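ARCHIVE CARD
CATEGORY: sequence design from structure
SOURCE FIELD: tokenized fold
FIELD CONTENT:
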């Protein structure tokens, strides 16, 4: 946290609903770092990796793919919130260890989902950032507990949550003392059948205007369709958002989770190189 931020005085008598995350607190955007990667500053950050951690070799291969393509942060789920109880539920703590080793080997920080308050204690010393998934955005006990940790929180929007509810979820975390929050729009449920969810790009831009904290999008879960991911990534960059989180897999057809929406390594590399002119045009870096 920057010194100015630590020193910022919070107006407790404010009548704002979410004063701790509201833009009015600062004159400028504030950055939040995962490891050595700052979000909300000059850099448009690419987070990429498999939906689920599948093993050590697989995770190291994924880290190499992300690094070679030009991504900055590794992702991967070890605790998986699956729609079906019969689907692969993730490797748990063993998966976190795989992420840690891959992250050290390729010198790239990682983010991974936390599903329960009970898991925080063993995860906190091991992870670079906690991800709160769409299904847990309303888990207030989890949000409060993460507020007491010292690690950044990537807060996905609930797929049925209003923007106000999303801001208030972040306020729960911030109120506990942890202001290192990155908002992630990952699509909301609408009548649209052609995409998995509907990316609320307007909502993400609204969030960017509403808070001083970084805002990114997850076009993988929002669409479920690899072919729509590069365009939405370019749109996010052009709109002044702070990055994207995307899923990539060395062999999507064999993935244990979300294989249908995973980019191939080649698609990720192409997506990032096609993004470069946009990044330059908006005066940012990758
Ligand atoms: C994920 O990122 O793997 C995930 C489960 O995302 P969401 O919570 O947005 O569905
Ligand atoms: Mn997924």
């Amino acid at each position: 946290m920057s010194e100015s931020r630590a020193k910022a005085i919070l107006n407790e008598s404010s009548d704002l609903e979410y004063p701790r995350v509201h833009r009015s607190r600062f004159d400028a955007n504030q950055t939040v770092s995962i490891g050595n990667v700052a979000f909300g500053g000059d850099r448009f950050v690419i987070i990429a990796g498999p939906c689920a951690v599948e093993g050590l070799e697989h995770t190291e291969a994924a880290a190499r793919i992300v690094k070679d393509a030009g991504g900055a942060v590794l992702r991967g789920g070890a605790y998986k919130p699956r729609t079906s109880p019969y689907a692969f539920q993730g490797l748990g703590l063993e998966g976190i260890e795989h992420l840690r080793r891959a992250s050290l080997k390729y010198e790239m920080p990682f983010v991974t989902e936390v599903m329960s308050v009970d898991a925080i204690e063993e995860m906190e010393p091991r992870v670079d950032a906690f991800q709160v998934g769409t299904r847990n955005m309303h888990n207030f006990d989890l949000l409060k507990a993460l507020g007491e940790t010292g690690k950044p929180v990537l807060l996905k929007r609930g797929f049925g949550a209003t923007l106000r509810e999303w801001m208030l979820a972040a306020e729960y975390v911030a109120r506990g003392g942890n202001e290192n929050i990155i908002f992630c729009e990952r699509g909301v449920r609408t009548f649209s059948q052609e995409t998995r969810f509907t990316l609320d790009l307007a909502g993400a831009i609204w969030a960017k205007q509403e808070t001083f904290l970084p805002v990114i999008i997850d076009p993988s879960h929002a669409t479920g369709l690899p072919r729509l991911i590069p365009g939405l990534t370019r749109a996010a960059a052009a709109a002044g958002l702070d990055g994207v989180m995307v899923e990539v897999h060395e062999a999507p057809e064999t993935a244990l989770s979300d294989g249908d929406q995973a980019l191939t390594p080649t698609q990720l590399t192409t997506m990032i190189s096609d993004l470069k002119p946009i990044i330059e045009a908006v005066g940012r870096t990758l």
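CARD ANNOTATION: Residues 51, 77, 81, 133-135, 156, 186, 218, 221 surround phosphoenolpyruvate (ligand 1) (CB under 6 Å). The chain has one domain: 19-281.
SHELF: design records, drawer C
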